[in-house]
Amino acid sequence: MSIDYQSLAVKGVQALSPYQPGKPIDELARELGLNPDGIIKLASNENPLGPSPKALAAVREALDELCRYPDGNGFELKQALSARFAVKPSQITLGNGSNDVLEVITRCFADSSSEVVFSQYAFAVYPLVTQAIGAKGVSVPAKDYGHDLDAMVEAITDRTKLVFVANPNNPTGTVHGAEAIESFLDRIPARVLVVLDEAYCEYLQGEGYVDGLSLLERYPNLIVTRTFSKAWGLASLRAGYSVSSPEIANILNRVRQPFNVDTLALAAATAVLGDEEYLQRSCEVNAQGMKQLESSFGEMGLEYIPSAGNFIAVDVGERAPEINQSLLEQGVIVRPIAGYGMPRHLRVSIGLPEENARFVEALSHALGTLPETESGRGV
Ligand SMILES: *Cc1c(COP(=O)(O)O)cnc(C)c1O
């Protein structure tokens, strides 16, 4: 007799669809028989500069230790974070990417009797981890593609255990300033934890910029998460962290895997924190590339969502799937975000100037050559 193993999975998992990552370069090369060297990937908000030389040197040096378990406490990395951001090592929880930390937080504080609040169009991992543990996800309709913080406060009930706020948000790039975030936190009951996901905070500049870490003293229910995957250029090595009260960190520490950050990731992350020049260049290249894409979209008559991150979502109309396919055939990988409920948009990560130019060229080729549908936009 055959068993339906699907039915054995816990309820939340049965209905779960997996996270859809950006297509890897080698996969596209295999699928379409393209030369991988000619493919550009602007699909996963990776740092286009390549890794920092300091991180690379640290990784090389750490290679001889691969036979040993990593430092499960991440002593050196916590010291480096602590020195850079003026927080105590006891406030830091390290993760296998911040994704890991987001999952650990959810598992520590929510169960099948809980509600977890997040925004429509917010980072896909929040609904995913919520559903996986059988909690009820409450998706609050967005306002101008961004978090409607007032409505999120309204959505809190007696069962709410967690609220996720991505600032800036992925995939929309929307951001809230200090005043809005503080007024939001003021209205959240102390028994509800707020996760402020600052995966893109390094790219923020100028007035009104919120540094979640500066709010921790005032809001003991706040957990700030950050990552080495984006501006710090270490997406492949999987290192992220949260900063919270030591009490919350202590709880997270019970559930995380004891060796969740490996030796190479620890070494690289520790080293890159000392590479200020790399961070500066990352931000400069990003700011320039953002301008480049914005002006090209303007010339093409395409609407986009102004973004505070290292990516931008552009409205290419109803033919987005065909346009994406054409881009792939031209060796350009971007991210369709229909899965986020944004079927007309493509999310493009900011690349090097020549990569951005190639994307723009491929996009205008796609827009110009594809047959128009009746309701599609004219070119
Ligand atoms: C990329 C991203 C993360 C996590 O990335 P990790 O590589 O797991 O650290 C978290 N939140 C948002 C909003 C992101 O875009």
Automatic annotation (TrEMBL):
Cofactor(s) named in the record: pyridoxal 5'-phosphate
Alphabetical UniProt keywords: Amino-acid biosynthesis, Aminotransferase, Histidine biosynthesis, Pyridoxal phosphate, Transferase
Reactions it catalyzes: L-histidinol phosphate + 2-oxoglutarate = 3-(imidazol-4-yl)-2-oxopropyl phosphate + L-glutamate
Transferase found in the keyword field: yes
Pathway: Amino-acid biosynthesis; L-histidine biosynthesis; L-histidine from 5-phospho-alpha-D-ribose 1-diphosphate: step 7/9
Every Aminotransferase class I/classII large domain range: 39-363
GO molecular function: histidinol-phosphate transaminase activity
Major enzyme class: transferase
Modified residues (N6-(pyridoxal phosphate)lysine): K230
Subunit: Homodimer.
Protein name (database record): Histidinol-phosphate aminotransferase
